[in-house]
């Protein structure tokens, strides 16, 4: 029997000002999970707390989730929840905060859980103590809609994509006021994360008639509106469309999975700390060049976007967003040639073994992955790999 699922949160609340929805929740206690200081600085953390208190709940806060959330951070948050015993876990912020909160949820309900089991996709049944609300501040990761979480093992320099429908949020709140505060460079990076999610979901070997329309709509919206949101952060039409595009892409990839772009991005992120969206943006055109031998579905995207070469179109889009077209040009972290070559074999092996590789449209190998990394580092074509 070829049985498949299409699963998303029970409720998706979207539009400007929808943070107010928190006041309608029923419960006694809620824990807010957030990252750095941006949600506090812009007043959204206090607003969320006030709305939960309006619902009659006592509220605790777990903050300080780092950009690449670690196992240590997850366990710290879970311990705080075990002491507070919330009915609701409310994650607000970027994808890192949302991802970390999902796994805190697991360890809150099951303190005896082992991270190694989660890496092996062995998840317990959740919602024995709490339900989960996700409120994204960036239009990119789509963690608010997905069964995915990416957690970093800082000791081994590996990012682990953890996957289970159990960690799909119960409620996603898409308030477009939050991403309107993003700086232009973050808007660009997370926006290209949306494009990568949508394209990889569209060409995935497990794409379906349910996921393809969502992925294609996200591709169209991102191609049209990301440059607008990048140029004018206060353009609320562009912000609304990008926030919705992120969620649409998430609905597609949480049910169709992803491919080699994410496999490579996860592992180079673990090695060098490069921002996930930035890594995806740079790697995407090269992986498409590599994959084109195996699928005709990129032609659908070219037709919709009016492009004769989707790889080149995406490279030009990167340039317009001030995103470098090669890994060696990255400035947010140092990826020196010496260090890159030093870790290349290990990184390639780990990327090939990443779960996202399984649904890539072209069968690959650790050696092929190595050549794609080199093409993306030096700016060479990946067509002949």
UniProtKB/TrEMBL annotation:
Residue span(s) of domain Alcohol dehydrogenase iron-type/glycerol dehydrogenase GldA: 9-175
MF terms in GO: alcohol dehydrogenase (NAD+) activity; metal ion binding
Keywords for this protein: Oxidoreductase
Domain of life (superkingdom): Bacteria
SUPFAM superfamilies: Dehydroquinate synthase-like
Domain Fe-containing alcohol dehydrogenase-like C-terminal: 187-377
Protein name: Alcohol dehydrogenase class IV
């Amino acid at each position: 029997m070829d049985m498949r699922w299409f699963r998303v949160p029970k409720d998706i609340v979207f539009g400007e000002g929808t943070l107010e929805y928190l006041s309608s929740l029923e419960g006694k206690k809620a824990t807010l999970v957030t990252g750095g200081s941006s949600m506090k600085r812009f007043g959204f953390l206090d607003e969320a707390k006030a709305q939960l208190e309006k619902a009659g709940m006592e509220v605790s806060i777990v903050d300080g989730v780092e950009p690449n959330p670690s196992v240590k951070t997850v366990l710290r948050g879970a311990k705080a929840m075990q002491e507070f015993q919330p009915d609701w876990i409310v994650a607000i912020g970027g994808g890192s905060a949302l991802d970390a909160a999902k796994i805190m949820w697991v360890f809150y309900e099951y303190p005896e859980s082992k991270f190694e089991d989660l890496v092996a996709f062995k998840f317990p049944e959740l919602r024995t103590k709490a339900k989960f609300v996700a409120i994204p501040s960036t239009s990119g990761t789509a963690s608010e809609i997905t069964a995915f979480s990416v957690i970093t093992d800082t000791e081994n320099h590996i990012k682990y994509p953890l996957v289970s429908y159990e960690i799909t949020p119960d409620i996603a709140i898409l308030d477009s006021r939050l991403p309107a505060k993003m700086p232009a460079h973050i808007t660009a990076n997370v926006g290209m994360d949306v494009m990568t999610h949508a394209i990889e979901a569209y060409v995935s070997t497990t794409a379906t008639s349910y996921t393809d329309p969502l992925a294609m709509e996200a591709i169209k919206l991102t191609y049209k509106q990301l440059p607008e949101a990048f140029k004018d952060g206060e353009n609320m039409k562009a912000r609304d469309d990008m926030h919705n595009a992120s969620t649409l892409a998430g609905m597609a990839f949480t049910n169709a999975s992803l491919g080699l772009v994410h496999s490579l991005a996860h592992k180079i992120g673990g090695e060098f700390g490069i921002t996930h969206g930035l890594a995806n943006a740079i790697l995407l055109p090269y992986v498409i060049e590599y994959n084109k031998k195996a699928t005709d579905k990129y032609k659908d995207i070219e037709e919709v976007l009016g492009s004769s070469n989707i790889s080149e179109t995406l490279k030009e889009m990167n340039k317009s967003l001030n995103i470098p077209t090669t890994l060696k040009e990255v400035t947010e972290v140092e990826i020196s040639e010496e260090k890159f070559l030093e870790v290349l074999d290990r990184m390639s092996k780990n990327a090939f073994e990443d779960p996202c590789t399984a649904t890539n449209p072209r069968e690959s190998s650790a050696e092929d992955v190595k050549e794609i990394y080199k093409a993306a580092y030096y700016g060479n074509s990946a067509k002949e790999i």
